[in-house]
Amino acid sequence: MRIDVVSIFPEYLAPLELSLVGKARRTGLLDLRVHDLRDWAHDRHRTVDDSPLGGGAGMVMRPDVWGEALDDVLGGAQAHPGEVELVVPTPSGLPLDQRTAERLATVPHVVVACGRYEGIDARVAEHYRGRGVAVTELSLGDYVLNGGEVAALVLVEAVARLLPGMVGNPASLVEESHGAAGTLEYPVYTRPPEWRGHEVPEVLLSGHHARIERWRRDQALERTARRRPDLIERLAVEDLDRRDRDI
Ligand code: SAM
User: Fold this and answer.
1) Are 39 and 66 in contact (CB under 8 A)?
2) Considering only CA atoms, which residue is closest to atom 19 of ligand 1?
3) Same structural domain for residues 137 and 212?
4) 29 annotated as a binding-site residue
5) CA of 90 to the centre of ligand 1 (A)
6) Which of 31, 56, 101, 120 is 20 to 30 A distant from 180 in Cα terms?
7) Minimal-distance CA residue to ligand 1 atom 23
8) Is residue 116 within 8 Å of 147, Cβ to Cβ?
C-alpha cells in the first residue's frame, strides 16, 4: 500500500519511522511518503495561506497551492477509480472509526492532506470529487487540533496495522475492541498472578479454554454496556449467543 502525507510540517511525521510502521516501511509493506506543501508555493516566502474571504479570524490554506501539490501526488487518480483516495482530516468530517480504517486498508493509494490555520479552502475537496477522485473528510473526534498531522499519524497507524503481514499474530486483530464482535475487548492480564494484593481472575489460571472464552465474552459485554452503551445498542441479535447475559 502507498500513503502520501502532505503537510507544512513534514517533521511532524517523523514518528512514522518507528515501531511497526517504520518496520513496514523498511520491509516494503508500506510505501509512505511525506511531502512539504511549501514545495508547491511560488513566492519567496513560500506562502500557503491567505485571509478568509468574507472576513473573520485566522487564515485559510490556498486552493492553488494545494491544487498543484495534489495534482502531482494523486497523479492520474481520476483515471483509476477505487485505486486512490484523498483523505482530508477536519473536525467537521465524519468520525474516523475501525470500519473506515478497514476500508482504507484495502485502497492501494491514500493521500492525506493536512490542514493548518482555519483549514483548507473548501473548493479543494469539491474539485477533486468533481474529477472523480474519492474524497473522505475525517474527524478524529469532537475537539479541535492545531493541524491535520496528528490525524495523519493516527490514520496511518490505524490503517497500516491492518495490512496483511503487518502484525505478527493476526489473531490479535480479531478479538480487539471495535473488531468483528462489535464490543470492547475484555480486560487482559499477565504474570505475576498476584501483584500488590491484586489477583488475576482465577478462571484465567484454570487452563479450561471454554470457561476462559465464556468469561472473556461476559467481560467484554459487561464492559461495553458500562462504558459504551451506544455500541451495545448497535449489536445485532445474531451477534449475541444464547448464553450472553442480559445487557
Ligand atoms: N476552523 C476549523 C473548524 O472549526 O472546523 C478548524 C481548523 S484546525 C485549527 C486546523 C486543522 O487541524 C484542520 O484543517 C484539520 O486538518 C486539523 N484538525 C483539527 N481538529 C481536527 C479533528 N478533530 N480531526 C481531524 N483533523 C483535525
Assistant:
1) no
2) 145
3) no
4) no
5) 4
6) 31
7) 91
8) yes
pLDDT digits (tens, 9 = 90+) for 84-122: 999 999 999 999 999 999 999 999 999 999 999 999 999
**Is 240 annotated in some ligand binding site?**
no
- Predicted structure pTM score: 0.95
The annotation status of 37 as a binding-site residue, yes or no, is no
143 Cβ inside 6 Å of ligand 1:
yes
Residue 144 CA to ligand 1 centre (angstroms): 5
The verdict on ipTM greater than 0.95 is yes
- Quote the domain boundaries for residue 215: 175-239
Alpha helices in 12-81 (DSSP H): 19-27, 63-74
Report whether residue 63 contacts ligand 1, using a CB cutoff of 6 Å: no
Residues in the chain: 247
Task: Based on the fold, state whether residues 68 and 189 are members of the same structural domain.
Answer: no
Domain with 234 in it: what CATH number?
1.10.1270.20
In a domain, 245, yes or no: no
Q: If you ran DSSP here, which 8-state letter would residue 217 be given?
A: H
Contact assessment for residue 88 and residue 136, using Cβ atoms and an 8 Å cutoff? yes
Q: At what angle do helices 19-27 and 149-160 cross, to 10 degrees?
A: 70
Cα torsion 12, 163, 168, 141: sign: positive
Q: Is residue 86 part of a domain?
A: yes
Q: Return the ligand 1 atom nearest residue 143 CA.
A: 23
Q: Which residues of the chain have pLDDT under 70?
A: 77-79, 245-247
